[in-house]
Design goal:
By secondary structure, this protein is of the alpha/beta class. 43% of the residues lie in helices and 19% in strands.
Length: 283
């Protein structure tokens, strides 16, 4: 299992769940951390191919930059199952399990307008610029919010899906944009970083923060009235399914996987947060 970064609890859950399911199915599993670095990711593929692993469960670092790595594995006879993040190729990976990010952020955008109103100033914190999830989420959000001329985006900056970077970026934005009403963050780690910055500036009660992922800390923060909403992805479901697909490939010679397999998401708000826990629905 190659994960883009372990500096985010959501990806830790994704990676560990995939490995745990693979072990349950009778395999040995190793977790590799790319640290959001395409060079480290490429080195992992080199080592994995040389060590003759049977399959790769893969959370890519870059939609374009990761294609060559997947193709090298394919040429070596190793199937690759992408999880959560996609690559811009339809013939390299065996299958790609992808959350419906655009639709999720359409729903989040609608809730954003309900909460903020049809007038106000907001900031958007983007994720990694090379990741399609960043842009699918942003486009889904803007497909709704841009219909309201009174809602003005006063800053849009990348914080790489990273909590600490989001804290720094938000601190910088607040120096020039002191009168804002909301922050839309492309993932929950950035939402928590933005909230920390707002809290330190004494503005946490005035600025509404929206995230995306369904991480445990943000679900708890919604319950406590701090974060307004997020979109629940289901990392445990995606991770387990990817391991099961790899097992079907290796044990049962299944080859007819769909190239891109959508995974539904759910809007989490203060009204329905009791139905959810970190990384999924309450059982």
């Amino acid at each position: 299992m190659i994960v883009s970064t372990l500096n985010n609890p959501w990806f830790v859950k994704l990676g560990e769940t995939a490995c745990d399911r693979a072990v349950e199915l009778g395999y040995e599993a190793t977790l590799f951390d790319s640290q959001n670095d395409t060079a480290k990711e490429s080195a992992h593929f080199d080592n994995i191919i040389a060590a003759d692993y049977s399959a790769i469960l893969f959370n890519p670092t870059d939609a374009d930059g990761s294609i060559a790595n997947v193709k090298r594995a394919k040429d070596a006879g190793i199937p690759v199952f992408c999880i959560d993040r996609e690559i811009n190729s339809t013939d390299a990976a065996t299958a790609q399990l992808l959350s419906d990010n655009y639709s999720g952020c359409v729903e989040l955008g609608k809730h954003f307008v309900e909460e903020v109103g049809e007038q106000g100033k907001y900031v958007e914190l983007l994720g990694l610029v090379g990741d399609n999830n960043t842009w699918n989420r942003s486009k889904g959000f803007h497909s709704v919010v841009d219909r309201y001329e009174g809602l003005k985006m006063v800053a849009q900056q990348s914080a790489d899906f990273d909590r600490n970077k989001a804290l720094e970026v938000m601190e910088s934005i607040l120096q020039s944009q002191d009168n804002i009403d909301a922050v839309f963050c492309g993932n929950d780690a950035m939402a928590m970083g933005a909230y920390q910055a707002l809290l330190a500036a004494g503005k946490a009660d005035q600025v509404k923060v929206f995230g995306y992922d369904g991480s445990e800390d943000v679900v708890n923060s919604i319950s406590e009235g701090m974060i307004v909403a997020t979109v629940m992805q289901y990392p445990k479901l995606m991770a387990r399914t990817s391991a099961e697909y790899a097992h079907e490939y290796l044990a049962n010679s299944k080859r007819d996987f769909e190239q891109k397999i959508p995974v539904n998401v759910d809007l989490v708000t203060r009204d329905n947060v009791s139905d959810f826990t970190g990384y999924g629905k309450r059982e």
